[in-house]
Design goal:
This protein is mainly α. It contains 6 helices and 6 strands. A hairpin with an 8-residue loop joins strand 5 and strand 6. Helix 4 crosses helix 5.
Length: 193
């Protein structure tokens, strides 16, 4: 684990993130959205992130829901950068999670309110519902608007815009920002020439 957030070592489920990290608990939403292939080690990643008990059956059906849900969350973040509203198809995975989830709240001795796992293990819908609750809290405190998608159409990585102006457009200026600026410069020169 080489990346860190203000000196904090990142959890293993976020080790694939390098730039413009969201603060916890939005970091889990960002890490989930930025998973590229939930096929290869999906069972382990979802369990490590606390979204699914690895002993739960029906991984194939869960993976289908996980992918569709991830793309719906990506579209929600896209709204923060001027994207369109969610379509009926985009809302469907979110509605499926809210209808299948059976979250129970627990208050711990140190006064933390948490989602409680069922005794037979955490189902994926329950874990994904926890992400929706994190988003709801971030919308309430204003931090959700800082979650954005990279302006590079070849990237679309989710990043957390920490800029004062809230006008960040790329996940990483050195890679995506420079690529797009150079592409635009070449296009302008081609038109002028």
């Amino acid at each position: 684990m080489t990346a860190s957030l203000s000196g904090m070592t990142l959890p293993s489920w976020a080790s694939h993130l390098e730039h413009r990290l969201a603060p916890p608990p939005l970091l889990l939403v960002q890490a989930y959205i930025n998973t590229l292939a939930l096929d290869d080690e999906a069972r382990a990643w979802l369990a490590d992130a606390g979204l699914r008990d690895p002993g739960q059956p029906e991984l194939a059906a869960d993976l289908e829901l996980a992918r569709a849900f991830r793309e719906s969350l990506r579209a929600m973040i896209g709204r923060n950068t001027g994207g369109p509203s969610l379509t009926e198809a985009g809302l469907r995975p979110l509605e499926q999670v809210t209808s299948e989830a059976a979250p129970r709240l627990e208050v711990t001795a140190d006064c933390q309110v948490e989602l409680e796992c069922s005794e037979d293990g955490r189902r994926l819908a329950d874990g994904l519902a926890g992400l929706l609750l994190t988003i709801r809290d971030a919308q309430a405190d204003g931090s959700w608007d800082r979650m954005k998608l990279c302006g590079n159409p070849d990237c679309l990585w989710a990043f957390y815009d920490r800029s004062h102006s809230r006008q960040g457009a790329w996940c990483d200026m050195a890679s995506c920002g420079n690529k797009l600026k150079n592409r635009s410069l070449r296009a302008r020169r081609a038109q002028a020439g």
